[in-house]
Design goal:
Blueprint (H helix, E strand, L loop, with lengths): L12 H14 L7 H5 L7 E4 L7 H13 L7 E5 L17 E5 L4 H8 L4 E2 L7 H6 L7 E6 L7 E3 L7 H7 L2 E6 L7 E2 L2 E3 L5 E4 L14 H11 L7 E4 L3 H8 L8 E2 L3 E2 L1 H8 L15 E3 L1 E2 L3 H7 L5 E3 L2 H4 L2 H4 L5 E5 L3 E3 L4 E2 L2 E2 L2 E2 L6 H10 L4 E5 L3 E2 L4 E2 L1 E2 L17 E4 L2 E4 L5 H10 L6 H10 L23 E4 L5 E6 L5 H10 L2 H8 L8 H8 L6 E10 L2 E12 L5 E8 L8 H15 L4 E7 L3 H8 L3 E7 L3 E8 L5
Helix pairs in contact: 7-8, 8-9, 14-15
């Protein structure tokens, strides 16, 4: 709980000045000129700056002015920071002798200097950065931070930036606080005492803002896919940027979500206002949204100010995978720059070019993997550079850093679907990822995967619209025995499911389906069933969901003849699920799709002894004509009326 019990002033300069006046009288030595403060910096000092939107802009600009006025005051100071929102004058060439930036996460303001060798990047899991300060592995000589005015008891909140800032303040030799009435007072472990601050610099100025981007169509499609993986009552973590914002907007119809995240954003505030996030199902920090820093609009800063439903704590707690894992059903949703066909992803570099950082990616993905029922979800646009580059690649570019290993990711989501990688072999992963890549790049990925021996050398593939999975045909039905089954077209990646299905069938069921004894179901035959031209044939799977596993309980298909408007139909149901109404639902759906394709009816070959199949056809409102050689019926079944 936050110290103090009174409502604190926010965006009220008069009230803030009155509060500071009391403390100026009590601690006059803390209120000195900026020149007196900066004169304490020695050559080679390590200067820490607050994070992101919490960066003390006035103190940074005052430090630059001091150096301009005293160019020989100090040299080779190291500026330590998680991330800057482009406010990085210390990286300018004119200050090269005075400062060298060292970021734990690369932003736009430091990306060029890091890559041209004039600034540094320290790759670290965010959860482990505070330990560098506590163990003095990275000493902090001076910390420049931004806080709220002290409350009546002398407590100052670090507001939107707690992350590694709290640890820096606790370990710095000299702490300078820019006191700003625009900083929200945030509950949790955000407070430092005015007694522990060496110098106070009052300066009111609007905080930096990081407004959400309006989501485009691709981002909205990805958000819709991710929403399928998140259930009511789950706890979520989402990163920053336009894509995570779109994902959050897709959760507006959810209920009782919890939040345990590194970054608090406008999107989270919106879900809390709507009542979607209430944190009632969380095991730790019950009924509170937990984060470690905030970047957003002023309206979000106003929302988190003195809000007991929001708590910020340091990164060593919030980002600790063992703490994260204490939340059941935690869904960690992060993005990446590139992922290869084996499931390795990079978020901090493209080849040898450093782009961002490790941040909390691995912390949360690994925490989610440890969480009971947790999901590690990587959401990624299928392309970059205006659609000219695939983000799903055969191998990561040379020199790229592996932010997430092959074992870290459960789901990969693009605008083209969901790939489930957990427990899959490399061949299955490659096909799953190719299936959700941009269609333009799938033929190239297939060829590269063959060349790298990641998939079968004879792996079939149908390019273009003919082989593009018709997701809109996915549906569900409740059978006459109240069994809810999913019905969907077969996918390129379904060969393992089909293999399990056919080998589960009894000899009698196999004989009735193929009108011959069949002992083996080879890859060559299975891929002819799983890789199809959707414009010439249709294979529908009847499936049940067993936790995270999909079980095929029935397969139905029809093929369109070249010289006839009749399609050859066949289907089979897993023995344990026969006489449950699955065959009826498969046939009804196949009939519906065949009618839409312009077919006039079906043809089929059925063993005379297969009475259940004949009964099913006979009650399906077909106009049936049959021929027989004594053992097999040759059926021609015309559609009539409107069907079912």
């Amino acid at each position: 709980m936050a110290p103090g019990d009174e409502a604190e002033p926010f965006h009220n300069p008069e009230a803030c000045d009155a509060r500071l006046c009391d403390f100026r009288q009590k601690y006059p030595d803390k209120f000195v000129s900026e020149e007196s403060v900066f004169s304490r910096i020695h050559p080679g000092a390590r200067i820490f700056l607050g994070t992101g939107c919490g960066e003390p802009q006035y103190l940074v600009s005052a430090l630059m002015k001091f150096v301009e006025g005293h160019p020989a005051a100090f040299f080779d100071a190291e500026v330590l920071q998680v991330w800057t929102l482009g406010v990085a004058p210390y990286t300018e060439p004119r200050f090269a002798c005075n400062f060298r930036s060292n970021s734990f996460f690369i932003g736009q303001g430091t990306r060029a200097p890091v890559n041209d060798g004039t600034a540094d990047y320290t790759p670290m899991f965010m959860s482990r950065v505070p330990a560098l300060f506590h163990r003095k592995l990275v000493p902090v000589d001076i910390a420049l931070v931004q806080t709220t005015p002290p409350d009546s008891r002398g407590h100052m909140s670090l507001g939107v930036s707690v992350d590694i800032v709290k640890a820096a303040v606790e370990n710095a030799s000299l702490v300078v606080a820019q006191v700003n009435c625009h900083m929200p007072r945030v509950h949790g472990d955000t407070f430092i005492r005015v007694q522990d601050v060496d110098y106070v610099v009052p300066r009111n100025e609007p905080l930096l803002e990081y407004p959400s981007e309006a989501p485009d169509a691709v981002a909205l499609r990805i958000g819709k896919q991710v929403a399928r993986l998140v259930a009511d009552g789950d706890t979520i973590q989402v990163g920053y940027g336009g894509l995570p914002d779109a994902i959050l907007s897709a959760f507006r119809d959810k209920k009782h979500l919890g939040v345990h995240t590194e970054l608090f954003t406008d999107g989270i505030a919106d879900l809390m206002r709507r009542g979607v996030v209430d944190n009632t199902r969380k095991r730790i920090e019950h009924e509170k949204s937990l984060a470690t820093f905030c970047m957003g609009r002023r309206s979000t800063y106003e929302y988190i100010h003195d809000n007991p439903a929001v708590e910020f704590k340091p990164a060593e707690y919030v980002n600790n995978p063992l703490v994260i894992a204490q939340n059941p059903n935690l869904c960690a949703i992060n993005t990446a720059l590139e992922i290869d066909l084996t499931g390795q992803a990079t978020a901090d570099s493209l080849g040898t070019t450093f782009f961002s950082g490790i941040g909390g990616h691995a912390d949360f993905m690994r925490g989610a993997a440890l969480s009971p029922g947790g999901k590690a979800i990587l959401a990624i646009r299928s392309t970059a550079s205006g659609g000219q580059v695939s983000r799903i690649v055969p191998t990561l570019k040379g020199g790229a850093g592996v932010t997430l290993t092959r074992g870290d990711i459960h789901y990969v989501v693009t605008e083209y679907g969901i790939a489930y990688l957990h427990g899959k072999n490399v061949r299955e992963r490659a096909l799953d990822l190719i299936a959700i890549a941009h269609p333009r790049f799938r033929p190239w990925l297939i060829e590269e995967a063959r060349r790298l021996n990641l998939i079968y050398r004879d792996q079939a593939f149908i390019p273009g619209k003919r082989g593009e999975y018709p997701e809109h045909l996915e549906t569900s039905r409740t059978t006459r025995t109240d069994l809810v089954v999913g019905l969907r077209p077969v996918k390129l990646t379904d060969e393992p499911l089909l293999k399990d299905f056919f080998y589960s069938l009894s000899e009698n069921t196999l004989y009735r389906r193929f009108i011959q004894m069949r002992k083996e179901i080879p890859h060559e035959w299975l891929q002819n069933l799983s890789v199809i031209d959707y414009t010439r044939e249709m294979v529908i799977l009847a499936t049940l969901r067993e936790e995270e596993r999909e079980l095929v309980v029935g397969v139905g298909q029809f093929a369109i003849g070249e010289h006839s408007n009749y399609g050859e139909v066949a289907f089979v149901v897993r023995d344990a699920y026969q006489n449950r109404g699955i065959g009826w639902e498969l046939l009804s759906y196949l009939t519906l799709l065949a009618r839409k394709s312009g077919l006039a009816g079906f043809t089929a070959e059925v063993l005379v002894e297969n009475l259940p199949m004949m009964h099913l056809f006979e009650k399906s409102n077909f106009d049936i004509h049959r021929k027989t050689d004594g053992s097999v019926y040759d059926l021609r079944m015309g559609f009539r009326g409107e069907g079912r």
